[in-house]
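ingest -> validate -> predict -> emit
validate: passed (alphabet ok, no gaps, 110 aa)
predict: started
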Amino acid sequence: MSNTMTYRGYAARIEYDDEDGIFVGHLAGIRDDVGFHAGNVEDLRAAFHEAVEDYLETCAKVGKEPQKAYSGQVMFRVDPEVHRRAALAAELSGKSLNQWAAEVLERATG
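emit:
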């Protein structure tokens, strides 16, 4: 079961608020705080789509570039031994470290 929704390149994290008996969602992967809620899944999906459209319209009105979730470029530090083992695994599979890492991340995130 997934607790996410996607629309127009945006993803939302969905939670259930038992106290209020509603589903609550927030756009993920952007710094702006965009939320929505509804009492059932069909209405939640509509509220999510409306939240994304409102976000894009608001950005256009105020002359702000809407944030998109991630550029596709990843840079992070790992222990040198992990780097060595990853580079070796990539070479043994006949791939560059970048190709190998992209495939590993794709498998890990499904």
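The first strand starts at residue 4 and ends at 7.
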